[in-house]
Amino acid sequence: MSKLLLIFLLFFLNTYLLSAQNNGELFLSLEKLSESSYGFELDQHRYEWKSSERFISKGWKFRPGDNQQWRSLGYDDKEWALLDTDFTFTNPPVEWQGIGWFRLKLTIDKSLRNQAVALVMTHYGASEIYLDGKRVHQYGRVSADPEKEQVQRPLFGQPVILALDDKPEHLLAVRYSFHRAKEIHSQYGKLTKVNDQNSTAGFLIHIDTPSKAISLYGESLTKNLTTAMIILGVLLLISFFHLMLYRFYSREKYNLYLSIFTALLAVHSFTKFLPSYATLTFEGVMWSNIVNVLVGAVWLPVSMLAIYSLFYQRIPKYVWFYYLSTPILAYGWAFYNTHPITSQVAFTIALLSVVDIFRVVVRAVLHRQQDAWIIGVGILLSEIPLVAYLFPSMDNYYRFLFLYPVCLAIPLAMSVLIARRTARAYKQLGHQLNEVEKLSARSIAQEKEKQQILALQNETLERQVSERTAELRESFESLTRTQAQLVQKEKMASLGELTAGIAHEIQNPLNFVNNFSEVSKEMITELQQELDTGDIDEAKAISVDIKQNLQKIHYHGSRADAIVKNMLQHSHGNTGEKELANLNIIIEEYLRLSYYGIRAKDKAFTCTLEINLDQNLEKVEVVPQELGRVLLNLFNNAFYAVQQKLKLGLPKYEPKVTVDTQRKKGQVEIRVRDNGIGIPEGVQSKIFQPFFTTKPTGQGTGLGLSLSYDIISKGHGGELSVASKEGEWSEFTVLLPYIPVPEELLTASVAPLPTADNFPQP
To answer: Among candidates 754, 749, 753, which has minimal Cα distance to 574?
Structure first.
């Protein structure tokens, strides 16, 4: 009977309490608050802290609109509708217009009178909390104007203390606004986090004792948050450490993959816990979730890269399938409530990737790859969170703590594996270093032995070198003497040709002098005879002829005298120093001497001379004798070339030598061109080498062009070049530095010959 009465009494109390709450009333007692398992646990859908029991969400009286009189304890709310405050984005109440008042009467037991209770609230909108008409706390700014509304999400688990007086009844009123609830649903409604039926657009409240609420709030900050930050810091340090390893040794790619893998895991963990420890708006929570999903989708293929790089030399190509499926993973995880087919595909891909990772690790362990078991242990440790689901009665903190092995187990296992590989590599390097030291010691001993042998050999070599040096010195002196003789021979050959030209040049006026002298001698005899006969007129006529002959004798004698004086001037002035000279006069003089020199050897030789001299060319600073030797050499070669081609008997061939002078970009250009036999292309690069000649043996020393090249390049700072086409023509070009000198400073260095402009053809 007593048992029946007890059951009836419990049933009556339960019915009374439920009916009281359903009519906008709630009975509170210290005993009920102390005995109830109030606490906060992280909800996987809302990322909010809620009590495991007795949310005060049902039985609230609600009225849409905004009126400050509705907070009063004496206001009559009998006509107000009952509304569950835990309404969702997907199914808001019809009466909800964006703002409204919620009222709940609290019946207080004697044990709670003149005591304090803790109220914990969570929502995404803005709220004001009133106790008996007095505002005790607010979150954000409540307003009927959506533009003025300022939403604020209460800090996770933070209690608000309500001081109760000795009255048995109190009124708890909440002024709440969230105008953007419908807008948010239209924007984010298809996302999993919004579409979830537990995504609250209203608010949740529960009441606890202050000591318990404050204890739980402190525990969440000191234990959970601290632990989360430590784990995040460890992940970032691991990522940075392996990134630096890759930076300084980029050959090992697994350090890069592990760095990215750990960094993504850190971002994934951060976005997982951020909404629980920051007062984010709903949009902030959504973006945190979106980043979490995207990072999770990328993290899976990167984890495969990291695993494959540890056990494979080359990553299989089929892994690209998982890279390309990243968008499917992200989309499927973000919309698994609204797009079940895509979600199933994403789940299948994720499952395949996880199975493949297990396959790679198991295969490595079975094939006894070094340290593969470490990754296996890490994967097993990552499954520890399953233990939390096997023990529902486990303390929330320890349940929460079990989540962290999945964050650290695999990265730490990979780091340990890499550390062991690195240590093993260092040991191998140590062994190799010992071997190198042994080899070095052996090499040093061998080197010492070689040094001794080399010392003996050096003494022998030094003696042989001394003997050989003496022989080479003697050979060099002999070669120097021979070269000097050849140079002298070349000079004598040039001198012979020059002498022949000079002799021919002087011979012409001397012949005229001799001829006119003989004629004058005969005419004087005739003059005497006419004077004896008394024929004065005839005698005068003869004297006139004699006078003309004497004038011609004087002219040709003066010409010979000028030639001799010129040669004397050249011979006396051969100091080897530069002086101002007229290039045109030097060219004409040596061209004439060369031409008459070759005609002295071959009386039948004739050649057309084309002379194009720049008459505006000012004097330049040269060594006339040295330049004359170069020109004489070039002219002789030109006449030799056309003479040899003339001997071939080609029809319609006319020998021709052309000489041009002109100014060209700060230089004087002298070009000597002939239409002779030319120079073969294969030997043009050797034409200026000493002792190289294209003439038959005995007809040239091979030093003429070599000496000419040295005179122009070294003595005058100019250039000497050749261009030729075999069988048709050759052209030598001399470039000399040209620095104009004012006319008043110029003096003639070579006396002009008293001849006509054109050369006479003998």
So the answer is: 749
Q: Which residue has the tokens 């969570």?
A: 122
Query: By C-alpha distance, which of 204, 205, 198, 206 is closest to 88?
Result: 198
Q: How confident is the model at residue 610 (pLDDT cuts 50, 70, 90)?
A: very high
| Cα 49 to Cα 72: distance, rounded to the nearest angstrom | 30
Q: What is the C-alpha to C-alpha distance for residues 299 and 302, in angstroms, rounded to an integer?
A: 5
Q: What are the residue boundaries of the structural domains of the chain, listed by start?
A: 16-208, 219-369, 580-745
Residue of higher predicted confidence among 271 and 197: 271
* CATH number, domain 580-745: 3.30.565.10
Confidence at residue 500, expressed as pLDDT on a 0 to 100 scale: 57
Q: How far apart are CA 242 and CA 426, in angstroms?
A: 17
pTM: 0.43
- Residue 261 structure tokens: 């893998």
DSSP state of 98: S
**CB-based contacts of 238: which residues, under 8 Å, 6+ apart?**
258, 262, 411, 412, 415
**Does 5 have pLDDT greater than 50?**
no
Answer whether 63's CB lies under 8 Å from 173's CB. Answer: no
Distances (CA, A) of 135 to 65, 151, 154, 336, 347: 18, 18, 16, 42, 49
- Domain 16-208 sits in CATH at 2.60.120.260
Instruction: Please name the residues in contact with 159: beta carbons below 8 A apart, sequence gap of 6 or more.
Output: 118, 119, 120, 208, 210, 213, 214, 217
Among the ranges given (210-219, 368-377, 431-440), the one the predictor scored with the smallest mean pLDDT: 368-377
Q: How far apart are CA 87 and CA 82, in angstroms?
A: 12
Using CA atoms, how far apart are residues 227 and 270, in angstroms rounded to an integer?
12
